[in-house]
Design a protein that fits this description.
The chain has 267 residues and is of the alpha/beta class. It is built from seven helices and eight strands; from the N terminus they run ααβαβαβααβββαββ. Helix 3 crosses helix 7. The chain binds iron/sulfur cluster (SF4).
Protein backbone atom coordinates (compact mmCIF):
# COMPACT_ATOMS: atom_id res chain seq x y z
CA UNK A 1 0.00 0.00 0.00
CA UNK A 2 1.20 3.43 -0.86
CA UNK A 3 1.05 5.81 2.10
CA UNK A 4 0.83 9.41 0.96
CA UNK A 5 1.85 12.10 3.38
CA UNK A 6 -0.57 14.58 4.88
CA UNK A 7 -1.36 17.42 2.48
CA UNK A 8 1.70 19.49 1.72
CA UNK A 9 2.32 22.59 3.77
CA UNK A 10 2.07 24.58 0.57
CA UNK A 11 -1.70 24.02 0.53
CA UNK A 12 -2.14 26.19 3.57
CA UNK A 13 -1.00 29.61 4.55
CA UNK A 14 2.61 29.30 5.56
CA UNK A 15 4.27 30.89 8.49
CA UNK A 16 8.01 31.05 8.34
CA UNK A 17 8.99 29.91 11.75
CA UNK A 18 12.48 28.98 12.63
CA UNK A 19 12.45 25.42 14.01
CA UNK A 20 14.01 25.76 17.41
CA UNK A 21 13.42 24.67 20.93
CA UNK A 22 12.79 27.49 23.37
CA UNK A 23 14.20 27.28 26.85
CA UNK A 24 11.57 29.39 28.60
CA UNK A 25 7.84 29.98 28.09
CA UNK A 26 7.10 32.16 25.03
CA UNK A 27 5.98 35.67 25.95
CA UNK A 28 2.79 35.06 23.96
CA UNK A 29 1.73 32.15 26.15
CA UNK A 30 -0.94 33.93 28.20
CA UNK A 31 -2.37 35.54 25.04
CA UNK A 32 -2.54 32.13 23.39
CA UNK A 33 -4.23 30.67 26.45
CA UNK A 34 -6.95 33.32 26.43
CA UNK A 35 -7.32 33.11 22.66
CA UNK A 36 -7.88 29.33 22.62
CA UNK A 37 -10.17 29.05 25.65
CA UNK A 38 -13.45 29.15 23.77
CA UNK A 39 -12.27 27.32 20.66
CA UNK A 40 -13.40 23.93 19.42
CA UNK A 41 -10.84 21.13 19.17
CA UNK A 42 -10.73 21.59 15.39
CA UNK A 43 -10.10 25.32 15.78
CA UNK A 44 -7.34 24.75 18.33
CA UNK A 45 -5.58 22.39 15.92
CA UNK A 46 -5.90 24.86 13.04
CA UNK A 47 -4.63 27.64 15.30
CA UNK A 48 -1.64 25.52 16.30
CA UNK A 49 -0.73 24.94 12.63
CA UNK A 50 -0.95 28.63 11.90
CA UNK A 51 1.07 29.51 14.97
CA UNK A 52 3.83 26.90 14.93
CA UNK A 53 3.97 25.66 11.32
CA UNK A 54 6.56 22.92 10.87
CA UNK A 55 7.54 23.37 14.51
CA UNK A 56 4.43 21.44 15.53
CA UNK A 57 4.12 17.67 15.95
CA UNK A 58 1.54 15.27 17.34
CA UNK A 59 2.71 12.63 19.82
CA UNK A 60 0.05 9.94 19.58
CA UNK A 61 -0.22 7.27 22.26
CA UNK A 62 -2.93 5.61 20.11
CA UNK A 63 -5.38 5.91 23.01
CA UNK A 64 -8.99 6.83 22.24
CA UNK A 65 -8.34 10.55 22.69
CA UNK A 66 -5.33 10.52 20.42
CA UNK A 67 -7.24 8.57 17.80
CA UNK A 68 -9.89 11.32 17.89
CA UNK A 69 -7.14 13.91 17.35
CA UNK A 70 -5.77 11.88 14.42
CA UNK A 71 -9.25 11.82 12.90
CA UNK A 72 -9.67 15.57 13.35
CA UNK A 73 -6.29 16.21 11.73
CA UNK A 74 -7.18 13.95 8.80
CA UNK A 75 -10.66 15.45 8.33
CA UNK A 76 -9.28 18.97 8.19
CA UNK A 77 -6.26 17.84 6.13
CA UNK A 78 -3.96 19.62 8.52
CA UNK A 79 -0.23 19.33 7.75
CA UNK A 80 0.74 17.93 11.14
CA UNK A 81 3.32 15.15 11.47
CA UNK A 82 2.24 12.25 13.72
CA UNK A 83 4.52 9.95 15.62
CA UNK A 84 4.21 7.27 18.27
CA UNK A 85 6.66 5.38 20.45
CA UNK A 86 7.30 1.66 20.19
CA UNK A 87 8.83 0.71 23.51
CA UNK A 88 9.29 -2.88 22.38
CA UNK A 89 6.83 -4.01 25.05
CA UNK A 90 3.50 -3.07 23.45
CA UNK A 91 0.40 -5.25 23.10
CA UNK A 92 -0.12 -7.02 19.78
CA UNK A 93 -3.48 -5.20 19.64
CA UNK A 94 -1.58 -1.91 19.60
CA UNK A 95 0.51 -2.95 16.60
CA UNK A 96 -2.68 -3.98 14.81
CA UNK A 97 -4.17 -0.59 15.65
CA UNK A 98 -1.20 1.22 14.11
CA UNK A 99 -1.76 -0.66 10.87
CA UNK A 100 -5.52 -0.08 10.87
CA UNK A 101 -5.00 3.62 11.55
CA UNK A 102 -2.53 3.93 8.70
CA UNK A 103 -4.93 2.18 6.36
CA UNK A 104 -7.92 4.25 7.45
CA UNK A 105 -6.19 7.59 7.00
CA UNK A 106 -3.68 6.65 4.29
CA UNK A 107 -0.81 8.05 6.29
CA UNK A 108 2.29 6.40 7.71
CA UNK A 109 2.72 7.08 11.41
CA UNK A 110 6.33 7.71 12.31
CA UNK A 111 7.45 5.17 14.89
CA UNK A 112 10.22 6.05 17.29
CA UNK A 113 12.22 3.17 18.76
CA UNK A 114 14.52 3.13 21.79
CA UNK A 115 18.29 3.11 21.36
CA UNK A 116 19.26 -0.55 21.01
CA UNK A 117 22.53 -0.14 22.95
CA UNK A 118 20.83 1.56 25.88
CA UNK A 119 18.23 -1.21 26.14
CA UNK A 120 20.77 -4.00 25.79
CA UNK A 121 22.92 -2.47 28.50
CA UNK A 122 19.96 -1.95 30.83
CA UNK A 123 18.68 -5.51 30.40
CA UNK A 124 22.17 -6.94 30.78
CA UNK A 125 22.57 -5.09 34.06
CA UNK A 126 19.09 -5.29 35.59
CA UNK A 127 17.19 -8.10 33.83
CA UNK A 128 14.37 -8.12 31.30
CA UNK A 129 11.59 -7.28 33.81
CA UNK A 130 13.53 -4.79 35.93
CA UNK A 131 10.50 -2.50 36.29
CA UNK A 132 9.05 -4.77 38.96
CA UNK A 133 12.12 -4.47 41.21
CA UNK A 134 11.86 -0.82 42.26
CA UNK A 135 10.44 2.56 41.30
CA UNK A 136 13.93 3.65 40.24
CA UNK A 137 14.35 0.75 37.84
CA UNK A 138 10.85 1.23 36.46
CA UNK A 139 11.67 4.88 35.83
CA UNK A 140 14.94 3.89 34.18
CA UNK A 141 13.03 1.57 31.84
CA UNK A 142 10.50 4.32 31.03
CA UNK A 143 13.30 6.81 30.51
CA UNK A 144 15.16 4.66 27.99
CA UNK A 145 12.14 3.20 26.22
CA UNK A 146 9.97 6.35 26.14
CA UNK A 147 11.60 9.59 27.17
CA UNK A 148 14.79 9.31 25.13
CA UNK A 149 12.94 8.43 21.88
CA UNK A 150 10.42 11.17 22.67
CA UNK A 151 13.22 13.71 22.99
CA UNK A 152 14.55 12.67 19.59
CA UNK A 153 11.09 13.11 18.07
CA UNK A 154 10.83 16.56 19.66
CA UNK A 155 14.19 17.78 18.37
CA UNK A 156 13.77 21.06 16.49
CA UNK A 157 10.10 21.40 17.45
CA UNK A 158 8.41 24.30 19.21
CA UNK A 159 5.11 22.72 20.18
CA UNK A 160 3.47 19.35 20.49
CA UNK A 161 -0.10 18.13 20.50
CA UNK A 162 -1.40 15.60 23.00
CA UNK A 163 -4.76 14.07 23.83
CA UNK A 164 -4.92 14.95 27.52
CA UNK A 165 -8.29 15.85 29.05
CA UNK A 166 -8.75 17.75 32.29
CA UNK A 167 -11.20 15.26 33.83
CA UNK A 168 -8.87 12.27 33.41
CA UNK A 169 -7.42 12.62 36.91
CA UNK A 170 -6.95 15.09 39.74
CA UNK A 171 -3.47 15.93 38.47
CA UNK A 172 -5.01 17.18 35.21
CA UNK A 173 -7.86 19.24 36.67
CA UNK A 174 -6.07 22.53 35.89
CA UNK A 175 -5.14 21.55 32.34
CA UNK A 176 -5.34 24.39 29.79
CA UNK A 177 -5.62 24.14 25.99
CA UNK A 178 -2.16 25.67 25.65
CA UNK A 179 0.54 25.31 28.29
CA UNK A 180 4.27 25.51 28.71
CA UNK A 181 5.77 22.02 29.03
CA UNK A 182 8.84 22.72 31.13
CA UNK A 183 10.01 19.10 31.03
CA UNK A 184 10.37 19.17 27.26
CA UNK A 185 10.81 22.93 26.81
CA UNK A 186 7.95 23.01 24.33
CA UNK A 187 4.48 24.48 24.13
CA UNK A 188 1.90 21.76 24.75
CA UNK A 189 -1.41 21.93 22.90
CA UNK A 190 -4.34 19.86 24.22
CA UNK A 191 -7.27 20.24 21.81
CA UNK A 192 -9.46 17.85 23.84
CA UNK A 193 -8.67 19.56 27.14
CA UNK A 194 -12.34 20.18 28.01
CA UNK A 195 -13.84 17.03 26.46
CA UNK A 196 -15.52 14.40 28.63
CA UNK A 197 -14.92 10.68 28.31
CA UNK A 198 -18.44 10.30 26.92
CA UNK A 199 -17.75 12.90 24.24
CA UNK A 200 -14.62 11.05 23.16
CA UNK A 201 -16.41 7.73 22.82
CA UNK A 202 -19.46 9.24 21.12
CA UNK A 203 -17.08 10.73 18.54
CA UNK A 204 -15.25 7.41 18.10
CA UNK A 205 -18.51 5.49 17.52
CA UNK A 206 -20.04 8.12 15.26
CA UNK A 207 -17.01 8.48 13.03
CA UNK A 208 -15.95 4.83 13.17
CA UNK A 209 -12.52 5.87 14.44
CA UNK A 210 -10.17 2.87 14.83
CA UNK A 211 -9.47 2.14 18.49
CA UNK A 212 -7.68 -0.47 20.56
CA UNK A 213 -10.03 -3.43 21.27
CA UNK A 214 -8.46 -3.71 24.73
CA UNK A 215 -10.61 -0.71 25.69
CA UNK A 216 -13.62 -3.04 25.40
CA UNK A 217 -11.99 -5.40 27.91
CA UNK A 218 -11.61 -2.92 30.77
CA UNK A 219 -8.32 -1.31 29.73
CA UNK A 220 -8.72 2.45 30.13
CA UNK A 221 -5.15 3.59 29.56
CA UNK A 222 -3.04 1.30 27.37
CA UNK A 223 0.73 1.34 27.51
CA UNK A 224 3.27 -1.46 27.69
CA UNK A 225 1.75 -4.93 28.03
CA UNK A 226 3.93 -5.70 31.02
CA UNK A 227 2.77 -2.62 32.94
CA UNK A 228 -0.90 -2.29 31.97
CA UNK A 229 -3.97 -4.14 33.25
CA UNK A 230 -7.75 -3.83 33.07
CA UNK A 231 -9.51 -1.90 35.84
CA UNK A 232 -12.81 -2.44 37.61
CA UNK A 233 -15.76 -0.09 36.97
CA UNK A 234 -15.34 3.05 39.11
CA UNK A 235 -11.58 2.62 39.58
CA UNK A 236 -9.30 5.54 38.66
CA UNK A 237 -7.86 5.46 35.14
CA UNK A 238 -4.37 5.17 36.61
CA UNK A 239 -5.20 2.04 38.63
CA UNK A 240 -4.42 0.04 35.53
CA UNK A 241 -0.81 1.23 35.31
CA UNK A 242 2.13 0.19 37.51
CA UNK A 243 -0.39 -1.04 40.07
CA UNK A 244 2.37 -2.35 42.33
CA UNK A 245 3.61 1.21 43.01
CA UNK A 246 2.29 3.99 45.26
CA UNK A 247 -0.03 6.34 43.27
CA UNK A 248 2.13 9.45 43.60
CA UNK A 249 5.10 7.67 41.98
CA UNK A 250 3.26 6.45 38.91
CA UNK A 251 4.14 9.07 36.34
CA UNK A 252 6.65 8.92 33.51
CA UNK A 253 7.90 12.45 33.98
CA UNK A 254 6.87 13.69 30.56
CA UNK A 255 4.47 16.46 31.62
CA UNK A 256 4.31 19.06 34.35
CA UNK A 257 0.96 20.68 35.22
CA UNK A 258 1.01 23.38 37.88
CA UNK A 259 4.39 22.21 39.04
CA UNK A 260 3.27 18.59 39.38
CA UNK A 261 4.64 15.88 37.17
CA UNK A 262 1.85 14.06 35.38
CA UNK A 263 1.93 11.15 32.98
CA UNK A 264 3.35 11.18 29.49
CA UNK A 265 1.31 11.06 26.34
CA UNK A 266 2.96 7.90 25.21
CA UNK A 267 2.48 5.59 28.14
FE1 LIG B 1 9.33 -0.21 30.79
FE2 LIG B 1 6.91 -0.64 31.88
FE3 LIG B 1 7.79 1.87 31.41
FE4 LIG B 1 7.08 0.22 29.40
S1 LIG B 1 5.73 1.09 31.01
S2 LIG B 1 8.85 1.55 29.46
S3 LIG B 1 7.87 -1.77 30.16
S4 LIG B 1 8.62 0.37 32.85
Amino acid sequence: MNHPHWPAQSRRKQTTIKAMTELSPPTDLSTWQQHTQGMSAEAILAWAVETFGDGLTFASSLGAEDQVVTDLIAQAELPISIFTLDTGRLFQETYELIQRTEERYGHRIRIMFPDRREIEEMVEKHGINLFRDSVEKRQLCCRLRKIHPLRRAFAGKRAWICGLRRDQSVTRAELQPVEWDAVNSLVKVSPLWDWSNDQVWAFVRERGVPYNPLHDKGFLSIGCASCTRAVQPGEDIRAGRWWWEEPEKKECGLHIVNGKVVRGGQD
